[in-house]
Write a structure and sequence with these properties.
The chain has helices at about 50-55, 80-85, 100-110, 115-130, 145-160, 175-190, 205, 225-230, 235-240, and strands at about 10-20, 20-30, 35-40, 65-70, 70, 85-90, 165-170, 195-200, 210-215, 220-225. With about 250 residues, it is α/β, with parallel strands linked by helices. A six-stranded mixed beta sheet has the order 6-7-8-3-9-10, with helices on both faces. The structure holds adenosine-5'-triphosphate and magnesium ion.
Length: about 250
């Protein structure tokens, strides 16, 4: 019997997003298998966050097709994609600052996860425990330190009960010890079968988690494959010229 590739959980084919003359994302093909952790690196302005916006439905793409489990979702609004299991964190965290940590996660469970009041309370409690936020559950989100703000961003995404988690530079600004906490959390999610795409500038963190790496530059995929091979790629090294990626 012939073996076939497993069907990707999430894929984008020929994805483009233009802003006037700027091709922020320019003909990108991307596919992530169920349970896989895919990393994305690339210089500032490469189009990484825009690619996440396209996948999550933050705006309509200019061209291309997005599929979840083989079914086209290209024109579905963000809340529908969320209901289908695509969750993202934002490069600049966006909690409701006046609400407590608990309320923030509960709102996500209700609005994004479609749970009623009672179920959303239970889910929020579970997620806070899993993300290490139990001790700060009753603090206003605006009073959190950086690590907890990053964890809250992940917790809010998890509250929607996703099948795939899109993480946008959640490691930035953390100390090494804090970074380790975050890496352990992502590895834990991965061990439970979560599919992850992680955009991150901090390569050594990424390398502890990912199975495969994509490097983007100027809206395109420069290289893709085994992480070490991608980092050794001549085009990738040229894109990082002057800023050694490792
Ligand atoms: N809403 C927008 N309107 C106009 N241009 C935009 C918009 N969003 C992004 N861009 C531009 O698209 C390009 C890609 O931006 P994007 O934020 O996707 O890059 P990135 O790879 O995430 O960079 P970084 O590493 O700095 O986060 C940049 O030139 C950016 O200025
Ligand atoms: Mg970005």
């Amino acid at each position: 019997m012939q073996m076939t590739d497993p069907r990707p959980l999430l894929s984008g084919q020929g994805l483009s997003k233009t802003y006037g003359k700027l091709r922020a994302v320019d003909g990108v093909d991307i596919a992530v298998q169920p349970g896989e952790a895919l990393g994305i690196v690339g210089p500032n302005g490469a189009g990484k966050t825009t690619l996440f916006g396209a996948l999550a439905g933050a705006f309509p793409v200019s061209a291309g097709v997005i599929r979840l489990d083989g079914a086209p979702i290209t024109t579905l609004p963000a809340h529908r994609r969320c209901a289908l299991g695509i969750a993202r964190t934002h490069q600049v965290p966006r909690p409701f600052l006046g609400m407590t940590v608990f309320e923030n996660v509960q709102v996500a469970a209700r609005a994004g996860g479609g749970l009623d009041d009672r179920a959303s309370v239970a889910r929020a409690a579970q997620i806070l425990g899993a993300t290490g936020l139990g001790d700060v559950a009753n603090r206003p989100a605006g009073a959190l330190g950086l690590l907890d703000r990053k964890r809250l961003e992940v917790a809010r995404a998890l509250a929607t009960n996703p099948r795939i988690l899109l993480l946008d530079e959640i490691g930035g600004g953390l100390t090494e010890a804090e970074l380790e906490v975050l890496i352990a959390l992502i590895l834990d999610l991965k061990a439970q079968g979560m599919t992850v795409i992680w955009i991150e500038h901090i390569l050594h963190a990424l390398l502890k988690v990912i199975d495969r790496l994509i490097c983007m530059a100027e809206g395109r995929v420069l290289a893709e494959g085994a992480p070490r091979a991608v980092m050794a790629d001549a085009a990738v090294r040229a894109a990082y010229l002057g800023s050694d990626p490792e």
